[in-house]
Amino acid sequence: MNNIGKNSFDIGYLDTLAAGDSSLHHLDPRAKLITTCAFIITVVSFDKYALAVLIPFFIYPVALISIGGLPAEYLLKKAFLVCPFAVLVGIFNPLVDREIIFHIGAIGIPGGWVSFLSILLRFVLTVTAALILVSLTGFNRVCEALLQLGVPKAFVVQLLFFYRYIFVLTDEAERMVRARSLRAFNASAMGLRNFISLAGHLLLRTLDRAERIYRAMCCRGFDGHIRIIRSSKIRCQEVVFASAWLFVFVLLRFFNVSLKIGDVIMGLFQ
Predict the structure, then answer these.
(1) Of 231, 228, 244, the residue nearest 28 (C-alpha)
(2) Burial (0-12, 13-18, 19+ Cβ within 10 Å), 20
(3) Per the confidence metrics, is the pTM higher than 0.85?
(4) E strand or H helix at 101, and its extent?
(5) Is residue 205's pLDDT more than 70?
């Protein structure tokens, strides 16, 4: 199996993790979705120079990974895989913002570097939280939760199709790469002209197969509704879970826990 096939299988591993049997897996998807959205909104609400105050927010992903029995290495690897996008967003901050905002000894730290590191930290926190949500819930149940929370059905169905057609795209790409490898004797070099031709054919083949899949779904009674075998019901556990984490997020947002911990540690050495 080539790298494209391996990556496709790797993406589907999130749905495999969602079949777990921990207490978090059995929670209603709406409670986990609301909590994750509140976590993301809280993390991104800090100012651009926030850095140390974001560190305590790692308690949320660490707690969910531990309780849910999720593979931390796999989730972190996936989070860091998309970090180049965050790097592109903040890479020019050190060049634009050169004002010194604090010192480490005799070394002045410009605000651009602080904001750049803050962007990377927020990115890791939010992406990891989203991956944990899918790993504990499954993408289908996340879409069902969105529908139950009032998100327009057209948007949810498009989101579901987008996720599912990733596998269609990677499957067609794997076939084309294998065919080219057999005809080119595993030659790794590919000219721009060949690449453009393969990309165009890949798009056409993917669209054609996606159309056939959609027609097959309609023949089998698909009406746009996502049917989930596991029932969803708000219970006391969901209320406690969401309320407790929302309280923690509010506490971390309006109280500088990092500063308080630092003061306590410094007091122990004085």
Answers:
(1) 231
(2) middle
(3) no
(4) strand 100-104
(5) yes
User: What is the C-alpha separation between 240 and 141, in angstroms, rounded?
Assistant: 20
Question: Do 126 and 156 lie in a common domain?
Answer: no
pLDDT in tens, 228-269: 656 667 889 989 999 999 999 999 988 887 777 766 666 666
31 contacts: CB under 8 Å, gap ≥ 6 = 234, 238, 239, 241, 242
Beta-strand ranges (E) seen in 134-252 are none
Residue 35 has pLDDT above 70, yes or no: yes
Residue 240 sits in the same domain as residue 130 = yes
Q: Are residues 31 and 115 both part of a single domain?
A: yes
What is the domain count for the chain? 2
Residue 85 lies in a domain: yes
> Domain range for residue 185?
1-16+152-230
By DSSP bridging, strand 100-104 and strand 107-110 are: antiparallel
